[in-house]
């Protein structure tokens, strides 16, 4: 195995369903493996398996698609050290690169050109204890911080973190309802009632294709 090999679950082309580039045709590179077990995870098929692939091969596959937008996701992509080199090489090719990460692993070494989309895990996720708050100073205006909200208690907790760390002054903050757990309209009404400086987000890909893998 070469030092720049990565274990890949899939590479696919779809519409971005979340974040600031929502709706954009995007190539997704899904890395295998994750140290977390969030109770609402919809990509558990990426916890294991996959295929060892060189960065050169990944870059060749990406180049087949006519889009500037690339998302590296998982699993938890930063669990594989070579992910940092993949992100750098994608940015070197002047792609618009985003990284979707759980917030449980250090993001300080991620290439500064990459848009970091970082979770803060709520209590109902079952992984709140894994939040790495030392990541927060490494977020800037181009990045996004995401809360997946499962219930009213999660919402209150998220509001408290928003205020405690003044997160909206650092980057864009996303509040997203956990599908099947938190009613989206109710969450939208809470945000409006409390006049929160956040972006309400639905998962476009689930609206279009449900939970189909590779979409």
Overview features:
alpha/beta, TIM Barrel, 9-stranded mixed sheet
Give me the secondary-structure topology.
Layout: E1 5-15, E2 25-31, E3 51-54, H1 55-62, E4 69-73, H2 83-92, E5 96-101, E6 115-119, E7 144-149, H3 152-164, E8 172-177, H4 184-194, E9 199-200, H5 204-209
Parallel strand pairs: 2-4, 4-5, 5-6, 6-7, 7-8, 8-9
Antiparallel strand pairs: 1-2, 1-3
Architecture overview:
It is a single chain. The mean pLDDT is about 95. The chain has a nine-stranded mixed beta sheet. The chain has one domain: Alpha-Beta Barrel (TIM Barrel), CATH 3.20.20.70. The chain is an alpha/beta fold. Helix content is about 20%, strand content about 25%. The chain is built from five helices and nine strands; from the N terminus they run E-E-E-H-E-H-E-E-E-H-E-H-E-H. The chain starts with a strand and ends in a 6-residue tail after the last helix.
């Amino acid at each position: 195995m070469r030092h720049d090999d990565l274990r890949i679950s899939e590479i696919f082309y779809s519409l971005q369903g979340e974040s600031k580039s929502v709706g954009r045709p995007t190539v997704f590179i899904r890395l295998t493996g994750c140290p977390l077990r969030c109770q609402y995870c919809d990509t558990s098929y990426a916890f294991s398996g996959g295929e060892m692939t060189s960065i050169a091969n990944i870059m060749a596959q990406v180049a087949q698609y006519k889009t500037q937008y690339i998302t590296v996701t998982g699993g938890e992509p930063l669990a594989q050290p070579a992910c940092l080199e993949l992100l750098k090489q994608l940015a070197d090719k002047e792609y618009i690169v985003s990284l979707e990460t759980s917030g449980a692993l250090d993001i300080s070494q991620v290439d500064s050109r990459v848009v970091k989309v970082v979770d803060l895990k709520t209590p109902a996720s079952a992984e709140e204890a894994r939040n790495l708050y030392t990541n927060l100073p490494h977020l800037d205006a181009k990045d996004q911080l995401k809360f997946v909200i499962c219930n009213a208690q999660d919402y209150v907790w998220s509001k408290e973190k928003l205020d405690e760390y003044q997160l909206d002054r650092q980057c864009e903050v996303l509040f997203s309802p956990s599908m099947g757990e938190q009613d989206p309209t109710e969450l939208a009404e809470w945000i409006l009632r409390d006049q929160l400086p956040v972006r309400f987000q639905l998962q476009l890909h689930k609206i279009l294709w449900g939970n189909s893998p590779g979409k």
